[in-house]
Amino acid sequence: MLEQLKKEVYEANMELPKRGLVTYTWGNVSGIDREQGLFVIKPSGVSYDDLKPEDMVVVDLKGNKVEGNFNPSSDTATHLELYLAFPEIGGVVHTHSPVATAWAQAGRSIPCYGTTHADYFKGDIPCTRSLTEEEVNNGYEKNTGLVIVETFSGLNPLYVPGVLCKNHGPFTWGKNAAEAVYNAVVLEEVAKMNLMTEQLNNKMSPAPKYIQDKHFLRKHGPNAYYGQS
Amino acid sequence: MLEQLKKEVYEANMELPKRGLVTYTWGNVSGIDREQGLFVIKPSGVSYDDLKPEDMVVVDLKGNKVEGNFNPSSDTATHLELYLAFPEIGGVVHTHSPVATAWAQAGRSIPCYGTTHADYFKGDIPCTRSLTEEEVNNGYEKNTGLVIVETFSGLNPLYVPGVLCKNHGPFTWGKNAAEAVYNAVVLEEVAKMNLMTEQLNNKMSPAPKYIQDKHFLRKHGPNAYYGQS
Amino acid sequence: MLEQLKKEVYEANMELPKRGLVTYTWGNVSGIDREQGLFVIKPSGVSYDDLKPEDMVVVDLKGNKVEGNFNPSSDTATHLELYLAFPEIGGVVHTHSPVATAWAQAGRSIPCYGTTHADYFKGDIPCTRSLTEEEVNNGYEKNTGLVIVETFSGLNPLYVPGVLCKNHGPFTWGKNAAEAVYNAVVLEEVAKMNLMTEQLNNKMSPAPKYIQDKHFLRKHGPNAYYGQS
Amino acid sequence: MLEQLKKEVYEANMELPKRGLVTYTWGNVSGIDREQGLFVIKPSGVSYDDLKPEDMVVVDLKGNKVEGNFNPSSDTATHLELYLAFPEIGGVVHTHSPVATAWAQAGRSIPCYGTTHADYFKGDIPCTRSLTEEEVNNGYEKNTGLVIVETFSGLNPLYVPGVLCKNHGPFTWGKNAAEAVYNAVVLEEVAKMNLMTEQLNNKMSPAPKYIQDKHFLRKHGPNAYYGQS
Questions:
Q1: What's the gap in Å between the CA of B198 and the closest CA on chain A?
Q2: Which of A13, A57, A71, B123 is the most buried (most CB within 10 A)?
């Protein structure tokens, strides 16, 4: 069942430790088959060293496990809300990558200070509000997804393919699982650069809007001219 | 004698350089056999490159060497006090991992700023008081253990599986040697994230208590639902 | 066509990920054959894992592609302006190496705080002004080159073999592609050291001029005595 | 000639890139044969990838090259002054390791904030004064050695086996070349920990003297009890 998607999601998961984004099991990737209305996600708490493509768990869009020998990631309900609210996306990633997590813990959106950020994220990378006690105690993972969706009111999720969950850490997404991981790597690099930028200049303002737009549109949209296509 | 435990303690020791927590010989792991009242610990000052399972030293609960070709770790008396005071624990680790050591040198407990911390440590990771001159000059390593025990008055050592010894560095523990090492890795990651968090926001307060509790109890206690069990 | 130069430029490109200066495709190296008036540059958006010497693209000094299966780097017009303005140089590098990029985002020239810097860069490593909206919207990459040239008015580009483009990142250069990469590595190391230097002393001034000159001239010019020549 | 010493000095040199202390050729190690009054040092500017034991250069205590196909390190005159002034030492190391260099550039001695430092260095790791213009222009490398010796007036060089040269970087030493490299690694680790310690607590004072002494004397002197001897 969904063998090709399981393979892609497996490979995307394995990129996380390879790229230095996860310690132990602190991350998970999923990918969706929109036609069948099913997504595939890492099992909960399984070590990356032991992970195999066939261990991926298949879940439907009501959050029920459809196939798999393991329990799906404890963050499955968050992935589900993102798939429901953002029909453009095909893959979702969660990590505790250290610098992005520091911004999330600090409760700060990441301002766009330069072109590395602007090449992939249009404007700030937003930080959500805190969940309420009620939201934490009743449906925590689902509410984590809903507060991300609330944060993206008025934003295009493919133009801003990631978010910081306050006191928690980053989620990123993309057209598919591989692109979602790519954006998780970009986010960590940008988080690191921008932390150091503020250490070097304590009166930073964002890069001029016209530079941000130029770089984003070099890589995205009908007039993109970066790369080979 | 205690061949299986020696192997486990050896493997837990070897995780320390593999995970980047030790330079040269700056760390040691022990594990206990509660039934026999004996624990097994790294020999003092032996290079990790040369270490073998049979080099592990067996010590009784009066601190006497029972078996081994080498002297036990110079921190043996600290491990012993922890085993005596915390009957729930089965393994102890000491390192000088750089960021946790920086918090210890700064004399600061690590506040819980997010879920990475809350998944493994319930509340602050405490820093001990300074030892007095008398405590340092007479039974330094034993007193290091006793001041840790004093710091944990009213705390559950399995809910807060680690401590910072002021001006020195971290000790962690767990159900067994492997889990104690796992907690040493978590502590270093959390120390790093929380240092950067304060650099990004100089008015931090801890994460809301209900978020801390939610994450700790997702992974611990009767209602835990993370992982496969 | 230009097989030897393609090989050199390919090898210089491959040094970038090996030295930890690039994530994904965020960097490019070129090298020039001054006699033929042609330069060779990395293709745009091609992964370093897949790159081969024959993928290098040949470009003339009007910016036209002369040979190659791929589009040249999107930064080709910047490289071109540097070759036109600085006849002494034979290779150019662009990266988003994280610490140099942080200085660029902070809009700060890197002061010379010590001999590591002075061994390779005479005086500050300058940061350009921001490009205007007009300069960004009409010929962005060419104007990036022109603003670097403007910044170097009165400077010897072989004595200061690199620059920070504001809100963007570093360019470096040298006698050939390999030396340009060497200078990119030096720049990142110096950027890192000097960030930490300011964290340790918030009232820094540059190293005495006579120390800067001594070190630069130990390695450069007729009285150099470092190394074997 | 001095084959065994050349091998030891070669191996000590090769530890520098392996331990992450040098970029390119930014470091050198020497070792001395006190009976013959000769020391062996890395050749100047030779890549670590190409270095061989037989490339080591033999120098006498007047600074004359006695044997070798290459020029000795440009820092040879500094090593020589240290051997002349400190008869207890058998090996000398110079690096530009980034964090120790940042302290040197900041012009700050490293205070003893904890036991990692106290295990190997008794008290502050001192930073020299700046060299005068005269000292730089006439016999720079020799004067670098002399200003280190001046800084150590009243200090035991085996109790404080390293120094920061202002605006330049660290020198360390030890009983032999291998121990000098060991101390260079310790210095970089301590430099890193202590930078972070000040970031966590901007009102730091040194660790209590009795803790510093306890740790130093656990490892040094007649009552040492760390390790196997």
A1: 7
A2: A13
